[in-house]
Amino acid sequence: MNLIDTIDKVCIEHSESICEIYRNSTLTYGELKKRSDALAKYIISNYGEDKSPIVIYGHKEHEMLISFLACSKSGHAYIPIDTTFPKDRIKDIIESSKPKLFINIGNIDIDNFQGKILSPENLIDIFNKFSGLKPAKAFFIKDNDVYYMLYTSGSTGKPKGVQITYKALKTFIEWFLPYCKTSEDKSVFLNQVSYSFDVSVISIYIGLLLGKTLYVIDKKMTANFKDLFENLAISKVAMWISTPSFAEMCVVDNSFNKTLLPKLEKMFFAGEVLSKKLVSTLYERFGDISIINGYGPTEATVLITAIEVNKDMLHSKDSIPIGYAMSNSKVILVDDTEKEVKEGEKGEIYVIGDNVSIGYYNNEKMTKKHFFITQSEAGIKHGYKTGDLAYKKDCVFYYCGRKDFQIKLNGFRIELEDVENNLRKLDYISNAIVLPVKHEDKVTYIAAFVTLNKHINEKEFKVAMKIKNDVGKLLPSYMIPRKIKILNKFPINTNGKIDRKSLQEDLK
Ligand code: AMP
Question: Which of 88, 186, 294, 451 has the fewest CB atoms within 10 Å distance of its CB?
């Protein structure tokens, strides 16, 4: 498959079709092609064979999509930076990636940038000046070139640039595309996930390849229920793509149902644990839809396992599975000596194949720590140690949490997610996050943050006592959180996941 050529073909064949709707503004496929060609031409005429990465700063503006494609057509990797990123982080990213071009759709003031900054006005000029010109295919990105680079948080405090090659992106898309088919050709895909989070790749590239219309939900809408629900009501979304946290926020309102989204056929979730409670609420509200759970780290290009969730899974003693391994790559579970574990045993997820990143940009130390290389008849392949634990039954993987969420408390080994899962079993708890509280690097106790799905007319400490008592029937006493805080809702980070860091700050 040739991604750029195929998207270009869709743009030509469906030039009048709407590719993206963002509030009152629409972008057609014809405009997407014309403007991305023009911008690619501009980049080629200014940078030629210099293929340094390009920063694209903004939120959900049409120019983001246009710029992504322009970079690929001019042979540059792009680094999407969402407007929610703080300035210091942007500085770190610039320092690490040394871009020569900063496409400033979000119009931020960047001091001391050595390269060129393109403002929204500059972009309009470029679209006009280079209108009708087409970049030569010789400049298009090649298989082993880096297609995009996403900066994820690093344990050192400095973000790490995950390099995803064109080949890796295509490997992911080839496997995952069939999951995204809907009954009508011209249906609508939700475009809500931040471009700094790779789950957004599904909306963008699979959406465009299939000639869909992307309906944008931006951060302003997400912060205002009235605005959000008004937009959802007119969106005609058939394919929902988000983190479970975003859907959990929506289901709080009972009008999040089939009447609001009558065209909804599929809901796809990734990025964090998908709870049985959320799945059963969604089945109740939407009836006959299909729900897909996908799992994967940024380092292995969006997802490496996926499964359609069926109603039987809700009654099983296992959690909702993360699914079957992708068909065109290898996903294995290994023990501490890196030997593959037996069926049913817990191990760390390793992934080996063309979908795996070539490493962190300019960061050999961290690349060596997390990546490895294998050689077989299939050739040289990159491997990545995910740090996630899982077990496998009948080829289906079940997520068991992060390896680094394993803590020791008074000598007892505790998996924080095990405590969370048991808290979630209580019928009045809608979600739970458990965190360690440390003193001088030693865990002294564990604390839980919970949200309730019904109001309990009691003081917070009494509710906390009740929770301790009830979860005490499911867990040994050393695993019962000493402190329990009840929240109305969880803080959410840029990627749309529950913000564990800010909860951890609350415990200080
Ligand atoms: P990111 O690199 O930001 O996409 O985060 C990847 C991490 O999110 C994985 O290593 C998992 O810890 C977690 N994750 C992703 N998808 C799922 C899922 N479906 N269920 C549970 N955890 C997930």
Answer: 88
SS3 content of the chain, % helix, strand, coil (to 5): 35, 30, 35
309 burial (CB, 10 Å; 0-12 / 13-18 / 19+) is: buried
Burial per residue of 462-487, b for 16 or more beta-carbon CB atoms within 10 angstroms, e otherwise: ebbeebbebbeeebeeebbbeebebe
Ligand 1 within 6 A of 322 CB? Answer: yes
| pTM attached to this predicted model | 0.90
Distance 368 CA to ligand 1 centre (A): 21
What is the rounded CA–CA span in Å between residue 270 and residue 180?
14
Atom 9 (ligand 1) nearest CA: 297
Give the distance (Å) from ligand 1 centre to CA of residue 294: 9
Amino acid at 395: C
What pLDDT, in 10s, does the model give residues 193-246? 999 999 999 999 999 999 999 999 999 999 999 999 999 999 999 999 999 989
Furthest-apart CA atoms within the chain: distance in Å:
70
Tokens, residue 396: 């289906």
Distance, CA of 465 to CA of 463 (rounded, Å): 5
Q: Is 494 in the pocket of ligand 1 (CB under 6 A)?
A: no
- Please give the Cα distance from 45 to 210 (Å, whole number): 31
Query: How many angstroms is it from 495 CA to the middle of ligand 1?
Result: 11
Q: What is the DSSP letter of 107?
A: -
Say how many Å lie between the CA of residue 404 and the centre of ligand 1: 13
Rounded to 5 degrees, φ, ψ at 433 are -130, 130
Measured from the CB, is residue 211 less than 6 Å from ligand 1? no
